[in-house]
Amino acid sequence: MNDPRLLRAEPEKARKGLRDRGGRYLPLLDKFLSLDEERRGLLKEVEELRSRRNELSKSVGQAKAKKDEEAAKKLMEEVGRLKTGLSEKEGRLAGIDAEVKDCLLGIPNLPHPSVPVGKSESDNPVVRNEGEPPAMPFKPLDHVGVGEKLGILDFTLAAKLSGARFALLRGAGARLERAIAQFMLDVQTKQNGYLEHWVPCLVLPKILEGTGQLPKFEADLYKTGQYEEKAGGEDGERGAMFLIPTAEVPLTNMVRDEILDAAKLPMKVTALTACFRQESGSYGKDVRGLIRNHQFDKVELVWITKPEDSMAALEQLTLDAQKILQLLKLPHRVIELCTADIGFASCKTYDLEVFFPGEGRYREVSSCSNCWDFQARRMNARMRRGPRGAPEFVHTLNGSGLAVGRIFAAVLENGQQADGSLRVPEALVPYFGAEVIA
After folding, report:
1. CB 341 within 8 A of CB 118
2. Residue 206: burial class (beta carbons within 10 Å; 0-12, 13-18, 19+)
């Protein structure tokens, strides 16, 4: 969440940031500011009543010590009236606190000043291009056509098992998917310095709240079963668990409620997981193929940094993700997202897009974002500079390194040959075990 002190002290700066995002969150900011002002006034009243109650309680004791029962009785009656008024105001304060929290959880991160202002994705500038789209002396197929022709992709059988927006990979297709994922992990862990983790795919609601998926994006999540969280040997919360939409969720929340040693930052971690998304807002969009499925594999990259290092970290994170595309020799470009297109938790984002010859256009395969202290405040993730330093919120960053299914699709479209075979990228041959899928 945003720093409430910043929203309070610089409301016009906050309004500009939200206007640049499209303006739809401005009423929520105004509601927060109104509630916050009411809360501070009420808190002052509550504190004064508590102070007066304590003074009177002390006076009751003094009157009883002097055996002045009449004075003690009058004081106790006044304490009783104060307690009634205090209880009412404390109840109202608790209600306002809950409303203020809801507002803060619903307001997106403010864009970084360096983010280009724009109204839609058409305003996203291209930062750099690498590689030329392949010149094919035949009409290229899309990845669905290539995969089905080779017998390595089966969407009909996947639909029989699970419905629409699922894929089944067979034989060389399954092996190619596994090879791509292993290659990505090896590059990030052996060359780029990330520590690999194997993380749960089911998480508690508060974990998704920490990274910003809840409460706003619950409709896009898969909710499953019941959980029973126990602490200190006693029964705790009960409710639904959620399948992760990305490994960003468990990886980032590993520092939840922690105070880290600033000298040990940055943390650079990675994980390969299955990801699950309902795609509730994409009805009728990308229903064909591997681009927007309900279940897909992804290698995620997460950084935890000191505040002053996060913008430089974003540049490096993006380069780390881009390195996969360079090694696979896939034509691609880097896009900087404008204010209207950045994600809810992000203050600045770069997208990596690969050229798909069968579609004749570029497709996003990774988003790399700096979330500033937005997620850290929701998770209470902090650091300390030295043993006597005051705790400070860390900065968190995340990026796909990369979406395995989309790279699988890009390899199929860019590697297809005139005879119907598939040329496997040289960097993948040691993992896949062959140069061609016939």
Report:
1. yes
2. middle
Residue 330 structure tokens: 């896939």
The position carrying tokens 């500079």 is 385
Catalytic residue of the set 178, 256, 292, 384: 292
Q: Tokens for 365? A: 């395969």
* Residue 113 in tokens: 């000043």
| Ordered DSSP codes for 72-101 | HHHHHHHHHHHHHHHHHHHHHHHHHHHHHH
pTM, to two decimals = 0.92
367 is catalytic: yes
Task: Give 263-286 pLDDT, tens digit per residue.
Answer: 999 999 999 999 999 987 666 677
Q: Is 364 an active-site residue?
A: yes
Q: Which domains does the chain have, with CATH numbers?
A: 4-106 (1.10.287.40), 121-437 (3.30.930.10)
User: What does the pLDDT look like over 281-321, one tens digit per residue?
Assistant: 666 677 789 999 999 999 999 999 999 999 999 999 999 99
What's the angle, vertex CA 266, arms to CA 265 and CA 267, rounded to 5?
100
Is residue 406 among the annotated active site residues?
A: yes
Q: Which of 10, 38, 218, 364 is catalytic?
A: 364
Exposed / middle / buried, residue 161 (Cβ in 10 Å: 0-12, 13-18, 19+): exposed
| pLDDT attached to residue 283 | 64
Which residue among 15, 277, 363, 382 is the active-site one? 277
The pLDDT assigned to 173 comes to: 98
Which amino acid belongs to residue 273?
T
Query: d(Cα 34, Cα 39) in Å, to the nearest integer?
Result: 9
